[in-house]
Amino acid sequence: MSEKIAILADSGSDVPAELLNKYDNIAVAPMLVTMAGKEYRDNVDITPEEFYARLDKADQFPKTAAPTRGSVEAKVDELRKRGFDHIIGITVSAHLSTTFGIFTNVANELSDFKMEVINTKNIGIGSGLFAVYAEEMIDCGQTFDETIKFLKQSVKNSRTFFYIPSLKYLRAGGRIGRVAGLIGSVLNIKPVIATDSDGIYFPVAKARSEQKAISKMVALVEKLISDNKSVRVGVANGADVPLQEKVYDRLHATFPQLKIYRGSISPALGVHTGPGLVGVGVQVGERE
C-alpha cells in the first residue's frame, strides 16, 4: 500500500503561498502574536499588512509565542481524518523558537501513524523552502523515510540571509543571538544577518548604506546558489515590496532559469525584525 504523506509546518516557516495553493497535503500551525493585550493567530487573525500598520502605532513591543500543543494536535487530527498516514513536520530553528520541541512531543505520542520533525535551523522563507523540497521528493515517488533522510541531510548547507534597517526589534524580542556585538559599535550600521549551522543568528556582513548591504547579501546568495546543483530559493519582505523586487530582479538576472519564490514574512517574525526587512532563503538539497 502506498504511503500518503502530508506536511505540517509552523507559520514562522513562511511556506510559499504558491505551494499552499497548489498542494492539499500541507497544513500550517499558527504561532501567536500579542499586540495591545490581544492575542492573534499568526497569518490567520492578522495579516502582515495589518500587523505592520498596527506596529507603527503600538505603544509597546508585541510579543510572540510558539503554536500551542493543542493547535498542533488539531492539525495532526485534520490530516489523519483526510487519510494521511505519514507527516513531515517542518519548523523554524530550535534555537529561535520552542516550536520544534512542541512538534516533537506531539509526534512522540502518536501511535497510529508516523510523524518525523525537521529542525530546519533556518527561519522564515529559508525554513519554508524545506516544504518545497519535500513536495518535490513526494512528487518523484520518494518514500517517507527517504524524504526524511534527504531533508535532514540538507539542513547543514541551507541558509537564510536577511537585511534589516534597525536592530532594535531583534534586541527587544530577545532574538539577538551573536548579533549583539553590533549594537552600539557603529552608528547607523546596516547589517546582513544569517543563520549559522546551528540555527543561530550571526552578522555575516555589514555596510554603511542600504544599497551596499543589499549588494553584499545578494553576493552571498549568488555564491551559495552557484556552489550547489540542487537549490530552492525564495525572497521575502517585511513591509518593503519595492526592495524585495530589487533583490528578486538581481537574482533573476543572474539565474534566469531558477524558480524564485516571493512573499511576505509572517507577523510572528515581523515582531522580531520590524519593518524594512528583505530576506533570502537558499535551501540546498542533497539530490542531483
From TrEMBL:
<dbReference type="InterPro" id="IPR050270">
    <property type="entry name" value="DegV_domain_contain"/>
</dbReference>
<dbReference type="InterPro" id="IPR003797">
    <property type="entry name" value="DegV"/>
</dbReference>
<keyword id="KW-0446">Lipid-binding</keyword>
<dbReference type="Pfam" id="PF02645">
    <property type="entry name" value="DegV"/>
</dbReference>
<comment type="function">
    <text>May bind long-chain fatty acids, such as palmitate, and may play a role in lipid transport or fatty acid metabolism.</text>
</comment>
<dbReference type="InterPro" id="IPR043168">
    <property type="entry name" value="DegV_C"/>
</dbReference>
<protein>
    <submittedName>
        <fullName>DegV family protein</fullName>
    </submittedName>
</protein>
<dbReference type="GO" id="GO:0008289">
    <property type="term" value="F:lipid binding"/>
</dbReference>
